[in-house]
Amino acid sequence: MRTNPRTFPAFQSAISSCFSYLSVSSRFHSVSMAAVPENGTTDTPNSPVVDDKVKYGFQRQEMYTEKLSGTAIAYDRHVILCYKTHELWPSRVESSDSHPLPKLLAGALKARKNDIPVKTLLTICEGREDAGLSDGDVLLFPEMVKYRGLKEPDIISFVDEVIVNRKPWSIGVQETMTGSHIFVCAHSSRDKRCGFCGPILISKFKEEAELRGLDNVSVTACSHVGGHKYAGNLIIYSVRDKKVCGHWYGYVTPSDVPELLDNHIGKGEIIDRIWRGQMGTPLVKKVQKAIEQSLPNGNDLKIIEQDHQTSSTIEERENKGGCCQGANGFSCCRDETPKTETETEVNKAISKFNILTRKWENHEVFTAAAVVGVVTIAVAYSFYKRLR
């Protein structure tokens, strides 16, 4: 086959242009993929255009598809660091070299995890002057205490004195917080659903609180609290019967805001349909039913069903990471945690039941052995008669 010398240069030019386009397209694709947040909602090139309310907002198909109760993380103390705004947080703000304050605090908590007496969760919230919060302020729940202006060189002393030894910080000023505090996940770089739903809920809470004259309700954007798919996610800390409660809610929509303000904060009533759980989940979560066991000695023993809920971090639940690997939640898990009074009583009951069970099993063994012995003698006697 002969090549036309006039058309060959044009052919070469076309091929060259094609390869050039493919190279640029490939580079663009790789950069785009690297920037995709961890939200499981990546668009494909030929996907139909869908409204953001349907893709990321309160009209998502996944809304209300899963049971929420029990999806909150087990913890007993919440450390919340005020730091910049949610638009500036990277996906892993507590491990970013560009953000040393949250990274160093998370690292110090991890280093002392076995010395911390209770399960502790670390979250980042916005430092907003209009809410009386500045960068470096640290909020502690359930203590309802605020420390002003944590600096990088002071992190070690803060963790040692306040978190590990549970004493007032010797170089910090302790302030008591009052009212109710709502933390709404708006971590957009971590997940588009939280980034879409969070700001809308924050605006709605502020609007409804102002209409009701609730000047003792603070609403702040916070980092990831676990469960992207449950967006909108939020945590409410409030005082009820002189006790500070921290309740988690998911699948929250703007229409739920009045009920949360009026019923949850106003009356102390939990909104069951969107409730995820609460701070301080006990080892024995609930008694499902009491089963009476009749034992040989005539005594009855009621068995309490025990819920062994192990401590875990957001990373463990979602990414199967190791203990105390925080994303924007951080659980400082002790290898051995002090047993609660409820746990001790349950263990005593279980121990007693095991002893009684072993006695019953021994009784059954002896009975079975006696039966076997009688049968053996009968068979031997029958065999002896046949021999005669």
Set out the fold topology.
Layout: H1 8-34, H2 52-55, E1 77-82, H3 100-111, E2 120-125, E3 138-141, E4 145-147, H4 155-164, E5 174-176, E6 180-185, H5 192-211, E7 217-222, E8 234-240, E9 243-249, H6 257-267, E10 275-278, E11 291-294, E12 300-303, H7 314-319, E13 331-332, H8 341-387
Helix pairs in contact: 3-4
Walkthrough of the structure:
The chain has a domain of 202 residues: Glutaredoxin. The strands form three sheets. Strands 5-4-3-1-2-13 form a six-stranded mixed sheet, with helices on one face. It starts with 7 loop residues before the first helix and ends with a helix. The chain contains eight helices and 13 strands. Helix 3 links the parallel strand 1 and strand 2. Helix 3 packs across helix 4. With 388 residues, it is α+β, with helices and mostly antiparallel strands. The C terminus is likely disordered.
**How many strands, which pairing sense, and closed or not: the largest β-sheet?**
6 strands, mixed
- The ordered H/E elements are HHEHEEEHEEHEEEHEEEHEH
Strand order of the largest sheet: 5-4-3-1-2-13
The total beta strand count reads: 13
Q: How big is the Rg?
A: 31 Å
Bin the helical content. Answer: 25-40%
Query: How many H/I helices?
Result: 8
As a percent range, the share of strand residues is 15-25%
Unreliable stretches covering 5 or more consecutive residues: 18-36, 283-317, 319-344, 349-372, 383-388
* Shape assignment: globular
Average pLDDT across residues? 74
Indicate the structural class.
alpha+beta
CATH superfamily assignment of the domain at 77-278?
Answer: Glutaredoxin
The end-to-end distance, rounded to whole angstroms, is 111 Å
